[in-house]
Hints:
By secondary structure, this protein is α/β, with parallel strands linked by helices. It has helices spanning about 10-20, 40-45, 60-65, 80-95, 105-120, 145-160, 210-225, 235, and strands spanning about 1-5, 25-30, 50, 70-75, 100, 130-135, 165, 175-180, 190-195, 200-205, 230. The protein has a 6-stranded parallel β-sheet with strand order 2-1-3-4-5-11, with helices on both faces. A 5-stranded mixed β-sheet has the order 7-8-6-9-10, covered by helices on one side. Strand 3, helix 3 and strand 4 form a beta-alpha-beta unit. Helix 1 (about 10-20) packs across helix 7 (about 210-225) and helix 5 packs parallel to helix 6 (about 145-160). The longest helix has 17 residues, at about 105-120. About 40% of the residues are buried.
Amino acid sequence: xxxxxxxxxxxxxxxxxxxxxxxxxxxxxxxxxxxxxxxxxxxxxxxxxxxxxxxxxxxxxxxxxxxxxxxxxxxxxxxxxxxxxxxxxxxxxxxxxxxxxxxxxxxxxxxxxxxxxxxxxxxxxxxxxxxxxxxxxxxxxxxxxxxxxxxxxxxxxxxxxxxxxxxxxxxxxxxxxxxxxxxxxxxxxxxxxxxxxxxxxxxxxxxxxxxxxxxxxxxxxxxxxxxxxxxxxxxxxxxxxx
Length: 242
């Protein structure tokens, strides 16, 4: 498989190593200094582009990739609220392909499934109130994290007494509060807590390094190379739908 990399920071360099170890070819690397290469033959020859950048530039990267006729895998967050519906429409109605996930970690995939199941169970026990906290490194620009929002959406789908999430303290009983903490070089910690007067139940995912994210992104690229449309972890791992 021919892969183009968009963004060549820590994630981009790790993705390059794992991709090569799995027998794939890196045909183009685009970073801030060579934006013109979106129009290069090398970029257009890619089966899939993998993009990890920032909320400020992700949307423009998507459009440039689509214009080049290249399928895209992206883990950039913070753009969905403003451009999400437009991007989904381009994929579902105009033949573009994007595999997007707020978190590609295989551990987070499993954690998400556990989160959804636990919310279904706790729907029967209104004595428990739910809250979430997420901690990331000080360089992360968006808050709450995309992963926290995805986890919150899973709770909202399965816990009838919660109808929305909010950063910080909840103002009403139907809100799910998310505390966003930024400190040091923390890769990512997400904790969901159900609390009652009698006891509490917590589940936590603590990323030790980026290796889980990287492998997940490569698996997504391998899947995207032979599929089309607006894709996500539910497609790659069908057990998330159950």
